[in-house]
Design brief:
The chain is of the alpha/beta class. Helix content is 36%, strand content 19%. Strands 2-1-15-14-13-12 form a six-stranded antiparallel beta sheet, sandwiched between helices. It has a five-stranded mixed beta sheet with strand order 10-8-6-3-11. A four-stranded mixed beta sheet has the order 4-5-7-9, with helices on one face.
Length: 404
């Protein structure tokens, strides 16, 4: 009798396990068909967000060029390093003794990498400065201190020289990109910032005797005025939802510590080291062994990571911030890179390069199950309607929504 009971129990468990296995395999059949038809190299990982059960995987541990999925690691590192609701980028203004209505000597402006300064914002800074101090005359130069980031690294490591890349610097004008191939853009960005600022001062009736030049703040000068950017949480949300490369790269450079023992300027190598330390600490991944990331925005094709790494990063962010983390991701109902891309709500980060596409994020299925996913595609030739990787991604997300 006991043997019979044991056999019945064994067969019951076996049937339950077999049915679950068949159900899992069946649920992925449509995805497998999409993979077989896609003319490129793809990697997919789909997991239950809460239980971390693997629902489907394909090349999930292979290295891919992640394109703008890199920004997920930039977001992760920034949230770990900074108090995102308190940190803001300062732009500092220095000048020596003043008499009413005059700056006697040079006006020094030191940038810190603020990625939010549009021409309109720079004009507002000039207006605020004039109103605060009431000066109408500057006897010296406007000196732009762009030295917080190494000025020679005005482009990211591994960026394609013939792309229209954003310029990076401690003084940054949002939206400005390289316009010609193979030209040196050293000091282009800070001088552009200075020209916009100077022109606005002139419109306000301020007479400037000197020139606009690059230099460093004199050590004996005191800060007279500081302009602060929006807080980092707002900047990170903009970076993620718009997939803004310039702000992502500026934030990436800012990851390096302020007290720089190797010199005055922060280098890309130091930013990589800071990112590496965070990723090692919270995800247990080793730079150069498990992954390689050399910029903060994903323009570099030196970057390599896997679907497993991206799902791990998103899952960590969810565990730490719960559904508040969704505020940083683009979604199908708001302005951003995912707006109206799918007929149901998806939160995620897109990635696009000439031969790389990706989508990673979160979706609640029609069965009310929360899914974390990463889809990555490399080495394809884009032909509209035929080889469009975005349509490939959409079909898989639709399948997830309907079947999991």
């Amino acid at each position: 009798m006991k043997l019979k009971c044991k056999i019945i129990i064994f067969l019951s468990y076996f049937l339950i396990f077999t049915s679950l296995l068949i159900g899992t395999v069946g649920a992925g059949t449509g995805i497998r068909e999409e993979i077989n038809q896609f003319p490129g190299f793809s990697g997919i990982l789909i997991k239950d967000l809460n239980t971390q059960e693997v629902l489907f995987s394909h090349n999930e541990d292979k290295l891919f060029t992640p394109a703008s999925l890199t920004k997920i690691f930039t977001l992760l590192a920034a949230l770990e390093i900074f108090d995102e609701e308190q940190y803001a980028y300062p732009t500092s203004f220095y000048f020596s003794s003043t008499t009413p209505g005059e700056i006697n000597g040079d006006l020094y402006i030191a940038g810190s990498g603020d990625p939010t300064q549009s021409p309109e914002a720079i004009r507002k800074i000039a207006d605020d400065l004039v109103q605060k101090f009431g000066f109408r005359h500057i006897s010296g130069d406007i000196v732009l201190d762009n030295s917080k980031f190494l000025p020679q690294e005005f482009l990211g490591r591994g960026w394609m020289w013939d792309d229209k890349n954003p310029l990076i610097g401690a003084l940054t004008v949002t939206g400005y990109k390289v316009k010609e191939k193979q030209n040196s853009y050293l000091n282009t960005m800070p001088l552009l910032w200075g020209n916009i600022f100077s022109q606005e001062l002139s419109k306000k009736g301020v007479k400037i005797e000197g020139n606009i030049r690059i230099g460093k703040v004199q050590e004996d000068l005191q800060i007279k005025y500081i302009y602060y950017s929006d807080t980092l949480d707002k900047i990170l949300a903009y970076m993620m939802k718009k997939s803004d490369n310039q702000s992502a790269e500026n934030i990436f450079r800012t990851l390096a510590p302020e007290d720089n023992p190797e010199g005055d300027s922060i280098t890309i190598a130091q930013a990589i080291a800071s990112l590496e330390e965070v990723v090692d600490t919270v995800l247990g991944l080793k730079w150069g062994k498990d992954y390689i990331l050399v910029d903060g925005c994903g323009l570099s094709e030196y970057n390599l990571t896997t679907p497993v790494h991206l799902v791990k990063a998103i899952s960590y962010l969810y565990r730490k911030y719960d559904f508040e983390i969704l505020d940083y991701f683009a979604n199908t109902k708001e302005k951003g890179t995912l707006r109206e891309r799918l007929p149901f709500q998806v939160w995620g980060k897109t990635g696009t390069l000439s031969s790389a596409s990706a989508l990673a994020g979160l979706v609640e299925t029609k069965n009310k199950r929360w899914i974390v996913f990463c889809l990555m595609e490399n080495n394809f030739i884009f032909i509209e309607e035929e080889n469009d990787p975005k349509k490939f991604e959409n079909r898989i997300i639709e399948y997830i929504y309907e079947n999991f």
